[in-house]
């Protein structure tokens, strides 16, 4: 069994309130969950209206499949024009950890 996690540190574009922030972050989280069947949520910077930290996790029996899913998730977030991807942190845990 393999567990992979990603955390995306995002700078949001023209956002001036927490309500506007939610209207940007929620669709990203929902698309990650829908397209890739991962667990995803906003996990930090809840009180800042121009920053967001989105975390996701997924489990697979195949390391190559897990890497593919994480790569696709990263590309999806990086391609969003309304956010700037400041950093990505990837963790990969295998049976021998």
Residue-averaged pLDDT: 93
CATH superfamily label: TT1725-like
Oligomer: single chain
- Helical coverage, percent range: 25-40%
Count of helices? Answer: 2
By helix and strand content, what is the structural category?
Answer: alpha+beta
Q: Supply the number of structural domains.
A: 1
Output the CATH topology.
Alpha-Beta Plaits
Radius of gyration: 14 Å
Give the uncertain stretches in residue-range form.
Answer: none
CATH class: Alpha Beta
The CATH architecture comes to: 2-Layer Sandwich
**H and E order:** EHEEHE
Number of strands: 4
Protein name: DUF503 domain-containing protein
Pfam family, one: DUF503
InterPro entries: DUF503, TT1725-like_sf
Descriptive terms for the model:
97 residues, alpha+beta, Alpha-Beta Plaits, 4-stranded antiparallel sheet
Gist?
It is built from two helices and four strands, in the order βαββαβ. It has 97 residues and is of the alpha+beta class.
Can you put this structure into words, describing what you see?
This protein is an alpha+beta fold and 97 residues long. It has a single domain, classed as Alpha-Beta Plaits (2-Layer Sandwich), CATH 3.30.70. It is built from two helices and four strands. The protein has helices at 18-36, 63-78; strands spanning 2-12, 39-44, 51-60, 83-93. The protein has a four-stranded antiparallel sheet with strand order 2-3-1-4, with helices on one face. The longest helix is centred in the first third of the chain and has 19 residues, at 18-36. This is DUF503 domain-containing protein. InterPro entries: DUF503 (IPR007546), TT1725-like_sf (IPR036746). It holds the Pfam family DUF503.
């Amino acid at each position: 069994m393999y567990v992979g996690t990603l955390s995306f540190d995002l700078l949001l574009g023209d956002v001036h309130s927490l309500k506007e922030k939610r209207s940007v972050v929620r669709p990203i989280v929902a698309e990650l969950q829908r397209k890739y069947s991962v667990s995803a949520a906003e996990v930090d910077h809840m009180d800042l209206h121009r920053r967001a930290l989105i975390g996701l996790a997924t489990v697979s029996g195949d390391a190559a499949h897990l890497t593919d899913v994480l790569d696709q998730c990263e590309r999806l977030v990086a391609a969003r024009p309304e956010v700037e991807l400041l950093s990505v942190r990837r963790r990969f845990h295998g049976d021998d950890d």
